[in-house]
Amino acid sequence: MSSEKYENELYDLAELFKMFGDSTRIKVLFELCESELAVCDLAERLNMTQSAISHQLKILKQSKLVKSRREGKSIIYSVADEHVRSIIALGMEHIEE
Amino acid sequence: MSSEKYENELYDLAELFKMFGDSTRIKVLFELCESELAVCDLAERLNMTQSAISHQLKILKQSKLVKSRREGKSIIYSVADEHVRSIIALGMEHIEE
DNA sequence: TTAACATATGAATAGTTGCTCATATGTTAA
DNA sequence: TTAACATATGAGCAACTATTCATATGTTAA
């Protein structure tokens, strides 16, 4: 039984896709694929509260899908891994059918 | 704001990745990528109840990621879309780093 | 038809999760 | 230092979801 052999990998894989499996998070990732953004700008673009976005960014950062740096009063977030773009692109291919 | 333009696509995309974002479902998909299987065989391989697997298969079928056919007393499930394989493969690439 | 096997399904439950609200932390300009 | 701005975070709640249990549906062989 192959999935038993890959037990841990498949668990991690589910955790990875879970990150893309929420409307808010995938919107955040999608925006960050186009340009790096501060938390308040993300919140404004997605029409959500700063708190909600900040909570999701924390989860995305823990999963190492986004990274951040301070710039004055703001924290600028950006995509941490090129795989984010390719995973979203591949998913889009599937949707558009 | 780009994500607003793609509002519906991103919602569907999240729904797609949600399917891959559960340990049980991704194990099922992974097994089915290797060979088509009856429900009871899947349940045995994953060491889970027939009911639990059946419930998840229903969800996967609604999402059009798996298909099924009857063969005697059994229902044989298989992957419905080649994208399933490529999405899992791409995710695996990300994990193995 | 009946028994045995295979699958599907509805209800109930326990666990998870995303958001809100309030507030803390950190930065900058006056 | 103080006020204004930007972000992070913990607690609480409401909504969602994966599993279990019991049972219904469907198929085959005797």
Which chain pair has the greatest contact? Answer: A-B, 41 and 41 residues
Q: What is the CATH architecture descriptor of chain A?
A: Orthogonal Bundle
User: What oligomerization state is this entry in?
Assistant: homodimer
Give me the CATH fold name of chain A: Arc Repressor Mutant, subunit A
Binned strand content of chain A? 5-15%
CATH homologous superfamily title of chain A: Winged helix-like DNA-binding domain superfamily/Winged helix DNA-binding domain
Q: Poorly predicted ranges of chain A (pLDDT <50, ≥5 residues)?
A: none
- The overall strand count of chain A is 3
**What number is the mean pLDDT of chain A?**
96
Q: Helix fraction of chain A?
A: 55-70%
Number of domains of chain A: 1
The rounded distance between the terminal residues' Cα atoms of chain A is 32 Å
Order of SSEs of chain A, N→C?
HHHEHHEEH
Largest sheet of chain A: 3 strands, antiparallel
How does the overall form of chain A come out from the CA principal axes? Answer: globular
